């Protein structure tokens, strides 16, 4: 099983031992590109299945990089609040488990999906990651002043 890297989250949550959705793996440190390794544009109608798989993986990796950036920003903005950090990290570890379980539940029998499986898994991984980014951004951008249920979200002062 090949895994999609999540560099910053792995570093920040190293004790967690989270697994990642099955998807084509790009070289560590490689920048995801809108082209396949053979130079074909990801939006080309002539893309091969291998190319579509690679493009979906690249897109999921871009979302993952954005998630890692936002996650690090939330940690930095709340560096002095140890109670929050402990609970926030626990929530993120739980989300990683949920994400992987959701992908596994959506594609329970990998042999049934053939060569499109990596593309499909990467698409689900990307969508779940984009949803999580939206959730984490509330700790960065804040919520509307006067939200009595804001909890640990900062007030945006809008």
List keywords for this structure.
about 160 residues, about 0% strand, about 55% helix, mainly alpha, 4 helices, single chain, disordered N terminus
Give the proportion of residues in helices: 40-55%
| Uncertain residue ranges | 1-32
What is the CA-based Rg, rounded?
17 Å
Instruction: Give the oligomeric state.
Output: single chain
User: What's the tally of helices?
Assistant: 4
Major sheet: none
Please count the beta strands (DSSP E, at least 2 residues each).
Answer: 0
Order of helices and strands: HHHH
Report, as a whole number of angstroms, the end-to-end distance: 47 Å
Please give a quick description of this structure.
The protein is an all-alpha fold and 158 residues long.
Description of the molecule:
It is a single chain. With 158 residues, the chain is mainly alpha-helical. Helix content is 54%, strand content 0%. Helix 3 runs antiparallel to helix 4. The chain starts with 6 loop residues before the first helix and ends in a 17-residue tail after the last helix.
Topology:
Blueprint: H1 7-12, H2 49-77, H3 82-106, H4 117-141
């Amino acid at each position: 099983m090949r895994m999609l890297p999540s560099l910053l989250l792995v570093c920040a949550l190293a004790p967690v031992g989270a697994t990642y959705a099955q998807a084509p793996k790009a070289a560590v440190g490689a920048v995801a590109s809108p082209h396949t390794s053979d130079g074909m544009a990801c939006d080309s109608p002539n893309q091969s299945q291998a190319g579509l798989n690679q493009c979906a993986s690249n897109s999921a990796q871009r979302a993952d990089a954005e998630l890692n950036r936002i996650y690090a920003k939330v940690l930095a903005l709340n560096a002095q609040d140890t109670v929050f950090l402990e609970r926030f990290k626990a929530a993120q570890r739980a989300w990683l488990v949920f994400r992987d379980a959701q992908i596994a539940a959506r594609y329970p029998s990998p042999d049934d999906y053939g060569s499109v499986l990596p593309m499909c898994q990467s698409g689900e991984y990307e969508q779940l990651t984009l949803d999580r980014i939206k959730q984490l951004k509330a700790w960065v951008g804040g919520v509307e002043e006067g939200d009595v249920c804001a909890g640990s979200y900062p007030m945006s002062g809008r």
